[in-house]
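REQUEST FORM: STRUCTURE PREDICTION
Request ID: SP-0412
Submitted by: Lab K.M.
Chain count: 1
Length (residues): 155
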Amino acid sequence: MAGQLQDLLVRRSIAEPALVGVHTGGVWVAERLHQRLGIATPLGRLDISFYRDDFSRIGVNPQVRPSELPFDVDDRHLVLIDDVLHTGRTVRAALNELFDYGRPASVLLAVLVDRGGRELPVEANVVGTRLKLPPGQQIQLVGPDPLQLLIQTVP
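STATUS: Completed
RESULT:
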């Protein structure tokens, strides 16, 4: 993923991107990419718990964390990073939160796993791997050390 992202940044002439991980797995992936790419801007972290469209149905995530964006979002090129892209709803929520902080110049999306099944028109710019899972299965990144992908059957 680091190589793909570096190539994309060069093609787009983006010299100083800011990386933003979505809690929790996206932050773990973002930390590794931030280190491998030697990005100078501090890493941003988003907790989208209050931006989810199923908030009224499932309630508050029991581990709500504050979002941290230690840089100005306005006119900055951002790379939003998440662990698993499925329906696209997490990305929509993350974009809503980012825009509450300002108006970025651009937002690229990097995900460790694209498992298909989109409900919204969201496409990742950088993908670690693509997986097709049968109905009733989900994939989860656990970690942080070591990072492991687990496939689980959902009741």
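NOTES: Residues 25-37 form the longest helix (13 residues).
Reviewed by: T.R.
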